[in-house]
Design a protein that fits this description.
170 residues; disordered N terminus; seven-stranded antiparallel beta sheet; alpha+beta
Length: 170
């Protein structure tokens, strides 16, 4: 009898799981690659810092049976090459992180943004890591407030990126 109850509960759970996924809309998959050059990305002590960046983003948007977005997940991979145009000093930044956008209850155009991974992991020859922003951060919909943060965040939380960049390249 106990085995039958367990089996019945298991079957009922499977029916509920598969019935709910059958009603959901098909996920929408997307991707994008980009490359750009900014010869005047920043100015440090009167010296221009150029930026050449390449990257790739790919993700999936999940919707419910009504077509309302339930969640969007974006995977980001990029390389930034910063160069002091006067001295030739260089800095390489690698970004590997995931963003998850979840709609605020009752809204289809306001989303919380959760960022997880290495947003900035910049290294310099002979110095190692000079800018480090890794962990998890959850932003409110207009990204003016941090709802949660864990990890080491030189930029997303502490807003020190430009000061650290200038310190490394001048």
């Amino acid at each position: 009898m106990k085995r039958r109850v367990v089996t019945l509960v298991s079957v009922a759970a499977c029916v509920l799981v598969f019935a709910s996924t059958a009603e959901a809309a098909r996920p929408f998959h997307f991707q994008d690659t980009n490359s750009e050059f900014d010869p005047h990305f920043a100015t440090c002590d009167g010296q221009d810092i150029s930026l050449f960046t390449t990257g790739r983003s790919f993700g999936t948007t999940f919707s419910d049976a009504n077509g309302d977005v339930v969640r969007t997940i974006v995977h980001n991979r990029f390389h930034d090459h910063f160069t002091n145009t006067v001295t030739g000093e260089k800095l390489l930044n690698r970004g590997t992180f995931q963003e998850t956008f979840i709609p605020v209850d009752g809204s289809q155009d306001l989303f919380t943004d959760t960022v997880v991974g290495h947003v900035f992991l910049a290294t310099q020859p002979g110095h190692g890591i000079v800018i480090h922003d890794s962990g998890r951060v959850i932003f409110n919909p207009d990204e003016t407030e941090i709802l949660f943060a864990a990890g080491h965040h030189a930029e997303l939380v502490d807003h020190q990126f430009e000061a650290l960049l200038c310190s490394a390249l001048t």
